[in-house]
């Protein structure tokens, strides 16, 4: 099987960026390439179609990586998606569809069926593509979890994949992290680690030379390149590690405030607003931070009832209601829309205790009842006189009352908008119409799809310039070189 594992010395080291860049760089060379991540833990997901034509759910990052590879996204690219529903349990999406829950205690055991499914999916992709670029999760040196690992070195061992380890030099300690990652692995795992990529370097590249030389000498493995710090570089995010927002340089920018819910999901819904000139998009979790919002967004959540209780505990519910009753525009998306209704009920215990019946914020005439079956749908229609499209991922069944008017599969009541559609603001015509209606803005001419493609191309350009792409492609095709030295202690795997 031809492929490459892009592992990381830490979480958020840049694995997704390197994987995306390599997918596009290989595709530029005419290689039939596909992305893969055996297990993703993220509440940011996307709807695609499975081989049977049914809608299926995968991690947002793998969906974007498929675009980079110039192939159609499919469930096999992210066979296991874990969606955190709390601190100790995650909802499992297996090959695009709900498959129960997994507890934190199950991470060391009880996941054999997930590993088997992930390996089958990889084998399937590898049988249909020349090269598969697999992104790891976290760090391969999580030695407490090595026995049950199937996304890092467990995957590499299954498919005899060579691995490169990405280290983020901006965090500090990158040489220790890269050396230590290899050194903590068992001999059989070390035999597959072919080298390193250093990410997010700022300054004089020459100053890095002695450290890179020493790393290569001490490990017997090469450094395939150093990616520079690129402040304008961002992709559809995988998780909520960095919700920094997008700030405008324009004086007098209008302020878009997104409520930072504890279990926020699909916060990429506001990425398109962040590209609009004259808009500051910020995430906030204090009532005082909502006071000067020109547009308020209540985003999706993986736990509507729990996050609604959190809103009330912090007084954010009152701040949201005051914003709306002051005549300012308010947009609720999916779980945020459900919170804006009159009631939220959970008779079967889908999200919380069975029989839960909680008052919503009462700004929209709608009632949500959770059902065990999940709705996955690609949706299209019109709103505000513009064509619109999006995707739905929800357990909540929303029943509208007689008040309000249709809006993107939801309801609008004056300045309050609610929709179950994720991704609708990525549509340029719909976004322009919505901003004209809510903030009185003229169309900016910003094209979100074109902007995403430019970001992918920029990442690929950086990879082409600063990494040895030819060597990495050869590595993917030929496997790890023989005779790589074993570093002590070599204790796991």
From TrEMBL:
Pathway entry: Cofactor biosynthesis; adenosylcobalamin biosynthesis
Keyword DNA repair: no
CDD domains associated with the record: CobQ_N (cd05389), GATase1_CobQ (cd01750)
Keywords tagged on the record: Cobalamin biosynthesis, Glutamine amidotransferase
Pfam families: CbiA, GATase_3
Residue span, CobQ/CobB/MinD/ParA nucleotide binding domain: 5-233
Family: Belongs to the CobB/CobQ family. CobQ subfamily.
Function statement: Catalyzes amidations at positions B, D, E, and G on adenosylcobyrinic A,C-diamide. NH(2) groups are provided by glutamine, and one molecule of ATP is hydrogenolyzed for each amidation.
Name the record gives this protein: Cobyric acid synthase
Species in which this protein is naturally found: Streptomyces marincola
Lineage, highest ranks first: Bacteria, Bacillati, Actinomycetota, Actinomycetes, Kitasatosporales
């Amino acid at each position: 099987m031809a492929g490459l594992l892009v592992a990381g010395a830490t979480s958020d080291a840049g694995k997704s960026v390197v994987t995306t860049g390599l997918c596009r760089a290989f595709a530029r060379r005419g290689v039939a390439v596909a992305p893969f991540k055996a297990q993703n833990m993220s509440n940011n997901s996307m709807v695609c179609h499975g081989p049977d034509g049914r809608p299926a759910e995968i991690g947002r990052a793998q969906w974007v990586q498929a675009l980079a590879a110039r192939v159609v996204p499919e469930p096999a690219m992210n066979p296991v998606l874990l969606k955190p529903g709390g601190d100790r349990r995650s909802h499992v999406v297996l090959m695009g569809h709900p498959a129960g829950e997994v507890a934190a205690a199950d991470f060391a055991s009880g996941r054999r069926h997930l590993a088997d499914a992930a390996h089958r999916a990889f084998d399937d992709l590898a049988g249909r593509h020349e090269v598969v670029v697999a992104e790891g999760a976290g760090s391969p040196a999580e030695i407490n979890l090595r026995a049950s690992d199937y996304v890092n070195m467990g995957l590499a061992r299954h498919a005899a994949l060579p691995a490169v380890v990405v280290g983020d030099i901006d965090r500090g300690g990158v040489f220790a992290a890269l050396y230590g990652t290899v050194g903590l692995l068992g001999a059989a795992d070390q035999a597959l680690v072919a080298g390193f990529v250093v990410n997010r370097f700022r300054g004089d590249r020459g100053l890095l030379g002695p450290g890179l030389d020493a790393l290569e000498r001490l490990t017997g493995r090469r450094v395939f390149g150093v990616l520079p710090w690129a402040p304008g570089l961002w992709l559809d995010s995988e998780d909520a590690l960095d919700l920094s927002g997008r700030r405008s340089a324009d004086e007098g920018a209008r302020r878009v405030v997104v409520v930072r819910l504890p279990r926020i999901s699909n916060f990429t819904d506001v990425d398109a607003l962040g590209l609009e000139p004259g808009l500051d998009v910020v995430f906030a979790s204090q009532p005082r931070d909502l006071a000067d919002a020109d547009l308020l967004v209540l985003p999706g959540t993986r736990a509507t009832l729990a996050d609604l209780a959190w809103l009330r505990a912090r007084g954010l519910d009152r701040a949201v209601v005051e914003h709306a009753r002051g005549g300012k525009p308010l947009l609720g998306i999916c779980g945020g829309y459900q919170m804006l209704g009159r009631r939220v009920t959970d008779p079967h215990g889908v999200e919380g205790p069975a029989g839960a019946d909680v008052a919503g914020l009462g700004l929209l005439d709608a009632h949500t009842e959770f059902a065990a079956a999940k709705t996955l749908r690609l949706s299209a229609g019109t709103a505000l006189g513009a064509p619109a499209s999006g995707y739905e991922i929800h357990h909540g069944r929303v029943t509208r009352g007689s008040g309000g008017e249709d809006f993107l599969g939801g309801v609008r009541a004056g300045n309050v908008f609610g929709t179950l559609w994720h991704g609708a603001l990525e549509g340029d015509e719909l976004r322009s119409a919505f901003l004209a209606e809510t903030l009185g803005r003229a169309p900016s001419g910003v094209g979100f799809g074109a902007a995403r493609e430019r970001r992918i191309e920029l990442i690929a350009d950086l990879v082409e310039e600063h990494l040895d792409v030819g060597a990495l492609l050869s590595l993917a095709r030929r496997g790890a070189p023989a005779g790589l030295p074993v570093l002590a202690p070599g204790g796991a795997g």
